[in-house]
Design a protein that fits this description.
Blueprint lengths: L6 E7 L2 E6 L2 H11 L6 E3 L2 H10 L9 E3 H8 L7 H9 L6 H5 L13 H28 L3 H21 L5 H26 L8 H11 L18 H5 L6 H20 L29
Parallel strand pairs: 3-4
Antiparallel strand pairs: 1-2
Helix pairs in contact: 2-7, 3-6, 4-6, 8-11
């Protein structure tokens, strides 16, 4: 959401391309190109591109779209779908890696630090392969009867997801802060009850210590299951089998449930609010899960 467009590489035929810096002079040209409904736009992870363009007031994108990443994922849902992998598979070409331009470690540069020539080389190389790959993938999708799915469902969905990601989700931080205090207090009370039932204090979050309490001191299972590391298993599945054996088990399960709620949602979500929009902006991935679900 906070990315800055430095430039746009455009390929309009095989090995013919141009790199336009995203400055005040070129912005109108770029805007007119992307908002021209007669022009087909080919790219990789177009959802990300569309969001960046919308952020820079290029909003009326109405031409047909072809996303290399989504097309390849439809064809091969179980394979990695990074641009370099797709390029090697189809074009037998190795893309120049980022570190060649940016370096590594403490001296690693940002793209904004590169001179125009290097930035253009990096962007145009990728623009060229996208142009070359589009025809190949279009033909393969047609052969496997995936074109309709790609055109009528996946691409429109990608644009809907882009808008959803841009819109974001509002949080009632005040309510969550109060809820956090309430849950923390409840967690403290449950912890004390666990200590009483165990007849000693210990680190309830430590599976090693918990295992010794349950299976060695309290002997709640005559044949306790162990993990590959040799420790007692205290997984939820294991504890659920013992929930009627001793009341400490239900207290431990309650402790874990509240702890999870706090760490995953109640305390975690306010920390990822965007400073500019005061909302949470998630990312919906179309081309990760092989089953076709969003991730």
């Amino acid at each position: 959401l906070d990315c800055v467009i430095l430039g746009v590489a455009i390929s309009f035929s095989i090995k013919q391309n141009i790199y336009l810096e995203f400055n005040n002079f070129n912005k109108k040209i770029i805007k007119d190109l992307f908002e021209d409904e007669a022009i087909s736009i080919i790219g990789f992870d177009l959802k990300f591109t569309i969001k960046a363009l919308i952020r820079h007031n290029i909003t009326k994108i109405s031409g047909s779209l072809f996303d290399i990443q989504i097309a390849y994922h439809l064809l091969y849902p179980d394979r990695r779908n990074s641009l370099d992998v797709i390029c090697e598979n189809y074009l037998d070409k190795t893309l120049t890696e980022k570190h060649v331009f940016l370096g590594k470690g403490k001296t690693k540069l940002l793209f904004s630090d590169l001179d125009k020539g290097k930035a253009a080389h990096y962007a145009c190389e990728r623009s060229n392969v996208m142009f070359d790959l589009s025809k190949i993938l279009q033909e393969e999708m047609a052969e496997k009867k995936l074109t309709e799915l790609f055109t009528n469902i996946e691409i429109p969905l990608s644009m809907v997801l882009a808008k959803m990601e841009m819109e974001g989700i509002s949080l009632d931080v005040k309510m969550l802060t109060a809820f956090s205090a309430e849950l923390t207090k409840e967690l403290s009370l449950i912890t004390k009850k666990i200590y009483v039932l165990a007849d000693e204090e210990f680190n309830v979050t430590s599976t090693k210590q918990l295992g010794k309490i349950i299976f060695e001191k309290m002997n709640l299972d005559k044949k306790p299951k162990k993990t590959k590391s040799g420790q007692y298993s205290t997984s939820e599945e294991t504890l659920l089998k013992l929930k009627d054996v001793h009341p400490i088990i239900n207290k431990i399960l309650s402790f874990r449930g509240i702890k999870k709620l706090l760490s995953t949602y109640v305390d975690a979500l306010p920390k990822i609010i965007n400073n500019n929009t005061q909302k949470i902006h998630t990312t919906f991935n179309q081309s990760v899960a092989s089953t076709g679900r969003l991730s």
